[in-house]
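Q: What structure does this chain adopt?
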Amino acid sequence: MYKQGKYPIVSKKTLAKGIFYIEIYCPHIAKAAKAGQFAQVQADWIATAHTASDNLETLVHRMVRGASLHGLTAIPPRNGRFLRPLLRITREQVETHLAALEQTYVTDSTNLTDDYTRNRIRHHIIPAMQALNPAAERTVSYTLRSLRREDNFLTQQASAAYRCCHTAENTLDGLEQLHPALRFRCIAMLLEECGFSCDAPLLERLGRLVEFVRGCLCRGKTGQTDHRDLSETSGHPGTGTGAAGREPAGLRLGACGTADIPRRIGEKRKCS
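A:
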């Protein structure tokens, strides 16, 4: 038994030239991942055995806790050098294949209890979902791949918009010109860049602040009173521009993490 890091490596086999199989003994595999066990392995690629069943459990878990679109994409098929080649295969399919090969495997005893949230999801919620749709694991896999494509596209668009609106340190100008989906992502990127925790309530408050600034500027130009709820968002899908005659709303984070209205509202900027 090899000893590498906190958890021992039970066996290390060469499957082919440059391809190795490593078995790690760990009461709970997540503990090994957190301990950096896999990160210590000298390899170009590391494949893990996460299945479509694990992906469905992860999705339900994150839905219950609350998550962004990115969080709802669940387990990515690739993350750096980590690959998950079995994400389109269910746990039942894997066990059936192992049984046909008469291949034994080890079941973590902690998976049999309801001590952990994921176990309760696996034992109670997933069976209820499968009672409604026996192919839930497969159909949800399609949904997750669709969500991942949408998330990748929005991430690319938000990165381009952020480069355009990030005019100074801790400052975003021209947020009003963005679709709300991009606006919120740009605010989240600014928070992360400044080292602040990015949670949904804070994003909602900052988004409403930008909308409030936009409303004030609009009323100042027209002399009209705007009685709309500040939680309402506005946007022009597909155009990326605000209404004619409006100045761009900006957001600046103060030294203590507080948000204020920029004293200078810059000229409108067009994102290309």
